[in-house]
Amino acid sequence: MQLDVNLKAPFFLIRDFANYFKAGNIINFVDTRITSNASNFAAYSISKKALWDLTKMAALEFAPDIRINAIAPGVTLPPEDEDEDYLEKLAQGIPMKKPGGVEPILKSLNYILENDHLTGQLLFADGGENLGKNL
């Protein structure tokens, strides 16, 4: 299921976008987990690692007409059954010590769209979570 949603679907969407539109931008959402090999949520993590590799391969294949990049958000939204306190607690384990919310993701999107020299790049919008545990 995770591979279907996080790898196969983006693969087909990238292919079809390239065939039908011929030019533009594609921005994939990967996860900070791609920087580690933590075994919890293994299917999810491997699907996001594979999506990052697909992003780089497709960026190379479809350049210069289609730019393909990725964003790795961090602590953004709580699960359905949790509230903002849950995010605050999670954020204590990252360098910035605060949840990012949606704003860093939107700023990352704007940066990618406005910089026409970016392709095959990954922006971490994660408050430094990708750097590892802040002890």
From TrEMBL:
SUPFAM superfamilies, sorted: NAD(P)-binding Rossmann-fold domains
Family to which the UniProt record says this protein belongs: Belongs to the short-chain dehydrogenases/reductases (SDR) family.
Annotated source species: Draconibacterium halophilum
The entry's keywords: Oxidoreductase
Pfam family, one: adh_short_C2
InterPro entries named among the record's database cross-references: NAD(P)-bd_dom_sf, Sc_DH/Rdtase_CS, SDR_fam
Single GO MF descriptor: oxidoreductase activity
Top-level taxon: Bacteria
Protein name stated in the entry: SDR family oxidoreductase
PROSITE patterns (alphabetical): ADH_SHORT (PS00061)
